[in-house]
Amino acid sequence: MDPETAAETAEAGHANGRATPSRESVRQLLFGDRWDYAPAPESTAHVRWAKRYGHFIDGAFVDGTDHFASINPATEEVVARFATADRKVVNRAVAAARRAYEKRWQPLSGAERGTFLYRIGRIIQERARELAILESIDNGKPIRESRDVDVPLVAAHFLYYAGWADKLDCAFPGAKVRSLGVAGQVIPWNFPLLMAAWKIAPALAAGNTVVLKPAETSPLTAMRLAEIFDEAGLPPGVVNIVNGAGDTGAMLVAHKDVDKVAFTGSTEVGKSIQRALAGSGKRLTLELGGKGANIVFDDAPIDQAVEGIVSGIFFNQGHVCCAGSRLLVQESIVDTVIEKLLDRIATLRVGDPLDKNTDVGAIHSRVQLDKIEELVQSGVDEGARMHRPACRLPDRGFFFAPTVFTDVAQSHRIAQEEIFGPVLSVLTFRTPEEAIAKANNTPYGLSAGIWSDKGSKLFKIAGALKAGVVWGNTYNQFDPASPFGGYRESGFGREGGLHGLLPYLEVR
Amino acid sequence: MRYELPPIPTVDQVAAEARARSFTTRSIKTTAKRAVLKTIVEMIDLTTLEGADTPGKVRRLCRKAITPWPGHADVPPVAAVCVYPTMVEVARDALRGSSVRVAAVATAFPSGQSFLDVRLDEVRRTVDAGADEIDMVINRGAFLAGDYARVFDEIAATKEACGAAHLKVILETGELGPLDQVRRASHVAMDAGADFIKTSTGKLPSAATMPIVLVMLEAIRDHYRATGRAIGMKPAGGIRTAKQAWHYLVMVKETLGDEWLTADRFRIGASSLLNDVLMQWARLDSGHYQAPNYFSED
Fold it and tell me: In what helix (H) or strand (E) does residue A327 lie, and over which residues does it extend?
């Protein structure tokens, strides 16, 4: 995507610079800099981290070999180097988890296990600022989000599942429950800490032990989490963390002494895991990709719907499996919605993730940026109309301006494939039936949003959508008490809530 | 022809409140803070609306309005002084030669419960006495009864009575109920010729809140897009600190754009806000807070 094309298709009057109103743009709003917010960088002076990390096995940080670098996507500088776990290391980690399961964790009462989880949750709250900064450095997400969304939800997850630890017998009336054993968990880079919490908290509450492999591009905060487990006095081996890329993950999930596998990531990898595990007797949950439909009806609260559209696709740079990446708007209001949407994205501040005023941070990696650029180019080539605000992107780092495509057909790649970036495709519909058909016309089935002032319509449409999560007049709301997960190629199994315990328990 | 309410989008209360809250997380530091504090001073309608107002009290307030912080030439005068009709002459004389405008509440403020001809007569006489701006209240009784045409007609008549004076229309949102009603009242007022729409009289415990002002700003934006007429906004009541005021300015900047960041299009009705702004200003200059008693209470 060359800058010239961007300037050409950018909407007139949405310039960020010192534009003066021209005669044609007299009704345009000017989002300029009569006074701009001065830079407000979050101080990193008090946050320390190591230059090299190995693994966390049996309650100790152990050295490793074959180090790879994790990059700060906003500066392209190396954050730290991490070892790659080979078969021997994975074996050690799984063996430690097995020992801990039998000798230390399973013998504890639920109340005792809960105490550790409470303690972990409290320490996370106490160290929230440090965790948020590290997350933003290693991942590229804006500090506003890591501080206000990610880290509070991480603590909330541990505290929520701490409450279940001593109530498992009441959780499923009439049934006896038992823990499974060792859980092998592989998590993605888009919410490194939060995904770790989603995996670890219910596993431990249910009485299992864990070997976790964080994503190789964002492993820093998992190592900090290991320190917190240590500080909380969690018995050695209850949680083990091994670093490495796909090979390490594959060894972990295929390990014969792992009883339960939980994976969040791409549909492609999810399919290969399911193939590898077939016939092994292991329990499996997958949380994979999505192409969420955000459906806006003509009776919607439009200004609030625009907010939901923005948070649906630009939250976390669109690196969200449940992102509302397909906007379905009733044709009678499409012009109004687009006008308001373009006004709104003109105010989005793209840049330094550590600046407290940044709304859209850095794209997580060069690989992801290339993928986004390739798909956006396909949108242009296939004839969709591209809009983006004329924002200045930093010279260094991986950045991509918020992008909206209109005149998108259902057959376009940008309407079909998961872009996993700040790119929205706008489609229209005429009737509720058409909206449902279009929303369901995807191999995925993770999330959807419905915007209508009519409650009966909300519930009727929600029931007809093939999506694991449906939001009504809101989007991207997360709560530990609420189950999350998908249908079809978005995976199976639920995380969060009572449902989130089930994959970690045998119910008899 | 009777006025009919145009089609207006509904408002989702929960989401509007969440959006309003998001503006309070903007961080404003150093140079931006200095610019913002100056802008806030320039936007203040310094207000005294007491039964106990005397010419002396009004004259003191006017001096404060012209020179908020004696000895600090970089602190600008406020936008206007807002008084009751009987105090307009006093204020006009005290403000003569300055840039500060005389604003007066009229139309049987704050309830508006008087006869239309009495209210219009009050407006005409207040303008004759020297008011540059009239802050009227809408007929909430008629509005809540669904008689939007009557509300419209009364505002239009008041606008006519104002002549050259600017008309600010007070919706008294604390009496209107849900945000949908605020949205509706905003459109009626703008359609009827308001130059500004204003939240409240300041005489109720519930005054300006960020969600209410957000909804009014969104109404102004839609009106501007549809007609090209730029209407001003005035939150009043409850804004006491500089921090609160700059949260509002952030909301204006990100909802209507930078062209609304002037006293022509945005005012803040307040009395105690000014001194808090001066305290923040002093802190920027000296690096530490001064005690409130260093600033004159007028």
Answer: strand A326-330
Across the interface, whether the CB atoms of B25 and A299 are under 8 A apart is answered no
- Token reading at B190: 């703008």
Distance CA B163, CA B289 (A): 45
| B288 in any annotated domain | no
Tally of domains within chain A: 2
In sequence order, what are the beta bridge partners of A84? Answer: A65
| A223 and A274 in a common domain | yes
What is the tally of structural domains in chain B?
1
What is the per-residue pLDDT across A324-373, written as a single tens digit (0 to 9) for each?
A: 999 999 999 999 999 999 999 999 999 999 999 999 999 999 999 999 99
Q: With contacts defined as CB-CB under 8 Å, which chain B residues touch A36?
A: 32
Residue A221 lies in a domain: yes
The residue-averaged pLDDT of B89-104 equals 98
pLDDT for the residue numbered A25: 52
Burial grade of A106 (CB within 10 A; 0-12, 13-18, 19 or more): middle
- Give the span between the Cα atoms of A467 and A13, in whole angstroms: 38
- Please answer whether residues B234 and B268 qualify as being in contact, where contact means their C-beta atoms are separated by less than 8 angstroms: yes
* CA–CA gap between residue A222 and residue A191 (Å, rounded): 11
* A343 belongs to a structural domain: yes
Q: Kindly report the CATH number assigned to the domain that includes residue A312.
A: 3.40.309.10
- Closest-CA residue in chain B for A348? B254
Which residues of chain A make contact with B9, given a CB cutoff of 8 A?
300-303
The answer to whether the CB atoms of A38 and B31 lie below 8 A apart is yes
Count other C-beta atoms under 10 Å from residue B51's C-beta.
Answer: 5
CATH number, domain of B58, equals 3.20.20.70
Q: Which residues of chain A have pLDDT under 70?
A: 1-26
Residues from chain B that touch A32, judged by Cβ atoms under 8 A, are 257-258
User: Beta-strand (E) ranges in A86-226?
Assistant: 177-179, 182-186, 209-213
Domain span including residue A274 = 52-288+487-507
State yes or no: cis peptide before A3, omega within 30 of 0. Answer: no
B128 touches A: beta carbon within 8 Å: no
Please name the amino acid found at residue B263.
A
Q: What is the CATH number of the domain that holds A110?
A: 3.40.605.10
* Same domain, residue pair A202 and A309: no
Encode pLDDT of B33-88 as tens digits.
999 999 999 999 999 999 999 999 999 999 999 999 999 999 999 999 999 999 99
b/e B78-109 (16+ beta carbons within 10 angstroms → b): bbbbbbbbebbbbbbebbeeeebbbbbbbbbb
Token pair, residue B162, equals: 């104002």
Per-residue pLDDT at B286 exceeds 90: no
Asked if residue B249 is part of any domain, the answer here is yes
Provide the residue type at B68 as one letter.
P
Note down the domain range covering B239: 13-273
Residue A448 inside a domain? The answer is yes
Beta strands A239-241; A209-213: pairing state:
parallel
State percent of chain B over pLDDT 90. 92
Q: Which of residues 102-121 of B touch A (CB under 8 A)?
A: none
* B11:A339 CB<8 A: no
In a shared domain, residues A253 and A308: no
**Is B297 a domain residue?**
no
Which residues does chain B have within 8 Å of residue A302's beta carbon, measured at their own beta carbons?
9
Q: Is residue A494 part of a domain?
A: yes
Q: pLDDT value at position B29?
A: 86
Residue B292 lies in a domain: no
Helices (H), chain B: 13-22, 30-43, 55-66, 88-95, 116-128, 140-144, 148-162, 179-191, 210-227, 242-255, 273-286
CA distances, B242 to each of A41, A221, A502 (Å): 22, 37, 51
What is the total residue count of chain A?
508
Residue from A11, A42, A135, A287 carrying the catalytic annotation: A287
Backbone angles phi, psi at A67, to 5 degrees: -75, 145
